[in-house]
UniProtKB/TrEMBL annotation:
<dbReference type="InterPro" id="IPR000847">
    <property type="entry name" value="LysR_HTH_N"/>
</dbReference>
<dbReference type="InterPro" id="IPR058163">
    <property type="entry name" value="LysR-type_TF_proteobact-type"/>
</dbReference>
<keyword id="KW-0804">Transcription</keyword>
<comment type="similarity">
    <text>Belongs to the LysR transcriptional regulatory family.</text>
</comment>
<keyword id="KW-0456">Lyase</keyword>
<dbReference type="GO" id="GO:0003700">
    <property type="term" value="F:DNA-binding transcription factor activity"/>
</dbReference>
<dbReference type="GO" id="GO:0043565">
    <property type="term" value="F:sequence-specific DNA binding"/>
</dbReference>
<keyword id="KW-0238">DNA-binding</keyword>
<dbReference type="InterPro" id="IPR036388">
    <property type="entry name" value="WH-like_DNA-bd_sf"/>
</dbReference>
<keyword id="KW-0805">Transcription regulation</keyword>
<feature type="domain" description="HTH lysR-type">
    <location>
        <begin position="30"/>
        <end position="80"/>
    </location>
</feature>
<dbReference type="InterPro" id="IPR036390">
    <property type="entry name" value="WH_DNA-bd_sf"/>
</dbReference>
<dbReference type="Pfam" id="PF03466">
    <property type="entry name" value="LysR_substrate"/>
</dbReference>
<dbReference type="GO" id="GO:0006351">
    <property type="term" value="P:DNA-templated transcription"/>
</dbReference>
<dbReference type="GO" id="GO:0004089">
    <property type="term" value="F:carbonate dehydratase activity"/>
</dbReference>
<protein>
    <submittedName>
        <fullName>Transcriptional regulator, LysR family</fullName>
        <ecNumber>4.2.1.1</ecNumber>
    </submittedName>
</protein>
<dbReference type="Pfam" id="PF00126">
    <property type="entry name" value="HTH_1"/>
</dbReference>
Length: 344
């Protein structure tokens, strides 16, 4: 007759599942903390326990799994291949637990609360997002905010980003992206430059001007985008100056050092102040978009939902569309022009 003993019953009568769980739970917490901090000591500080307790928990977990999770030296701690695989397997479960805790706290305690991590490009973050944060904090004082500026598109899950603002879609099927406003590109120059050098009347005439370029994070120069006879063209004009920061490009334009193509949100204040003028408007490319991106979740924590709703309303109310397209201006001029008699 086959044995009918319970699979988790230990020889001494204890429930081996319970014993295994208590060992694994502490070990997994310690393991994730060490992996995140890169140090047993810092992991102990994060968990509020001593370094030796962290080391014992990880060692028990390694014994239980029968694999080595970390490579330890006197100067560094790094994951083994097995450790990386185990971390990848643990992360979704930990994220689900953390999300469940956040959602329960939000549901239980009422108003949105907790920490919010936001990512944006330097220019959009400085000029559009940062000015919104004071009013958001006034409305939701229990939500702390961290704004991270980076030209590189973030990995929302790995970088623990709650909301990202990007000029275009993120290539991630797990990310929800909604367009906030169109993004126009305008070619700008200072009035003094225009008086001294004139302005290009066609895309080809850029070759005769001092163009100011922008170096992208990957190292290549950003191309200029236009629409000529209905076709998209992206030339790379010869540059007199190159910066890797959009605000420095704008300042160089304002100083009369050359011409540059900039997103309208970056140039709008200078355009309204008259410190720059536009050219090549008739060749402006089709509008792109500024997108608000967040991870696809069945239920968002209330602090994230509150910020999405708040920022969407505020950004769409901004007057970022400061340059009407050349075609629209031509149509408006035609409507306003007096009708010519048939015999003229």
């Amino acid at each position: 007759m086959k044995s009918t003993s319970q699979p988790f019953a230990a020889a001494d009568g204890r429930d081996s599942l319970n014993a295994s769980f208590s060992t694994s739970y502490a070990g997994v917490l310690a393991f994730i903390a060490v992996a995140a901090e890169g140090s047993f000591a810092r992991a102990g500080d994060r968990l509020g326990i001593g370094r030796s307790a962290v080391s014992r928990s990880v060692r028990k977990l390694e014994d239980q799994l029968g694999v080595r999770l970390f490579l330890r030296t006197t100067r560094s701690t790094s994951l083994t291949g097995e450790g990386e695989l185990f971390l990848e397997g643990c992360s979704p479960g930990v994220d689900c637990i953390l999300q469940a805790l956040d959602e329960m706290r939000d549901l239980r305690d009422g108003p949105p609360r907790g920490h919010l991590r936001i990512s944006a490009t330097h220019g959009f973050g400085r000029r559009v997002i940062a000015p919104l944060l004071a009013d958001f904090r006034d409305e939701y004082p229990e939500v702390s905010v961290e704004l991270l500026l980076d030209e590189q598109a973030p990995d929302l899950a790995a970088d623990r980003i709650d909301v990202a603002f990007r000029d275009g879609l993120l290539e991630d099927s797990q990310v929800i992206a909604k367009q906030l406003v169109p993004m126009q590109l305008v070619v700008c120059a200072a009035p003094d430059y225009a008086r001294a050098r004139g302005l290009p009347a066609s895309v080809e005439e850029l070759a005769a001007h001092a163009c100011i370029g922008r170096r992208l994070p990957g190292g290549r120069l950003q191309r200029w985008d236009f629409r000529v006879d209905g076709d998209a063209v992206s030339p790379q004009p010869a540059t007199a100056l190159v910066f890797n920061d959009g605000d420095l490009v704008l300042q160089a334009v304002v100083d009369g050092l050359g011409i540059a193509q900039l997103p309208s949100y970056q140039a709008c204040e200078a355009l309204r102040a008259g410190t720059v003028v536009t050219c090549l408007d008739r060749y402006a490319p089709h509008d792109r978009g500024h997108y608000l991106c967040y991870l696809s979740r069945r239920q968002l924590p209330r602090r994230i939902r509150a910020f999405i709703d708040f920022s969407t309303q505020r950004i769409r109310a901004l007057d970022l569309d400061v340059v009407s397209h050349w075609e629209a201006r031509q149509q408006a001029a035609a409507r306003e022009a007096p009708a010519q008699p048939a015999w003229a």
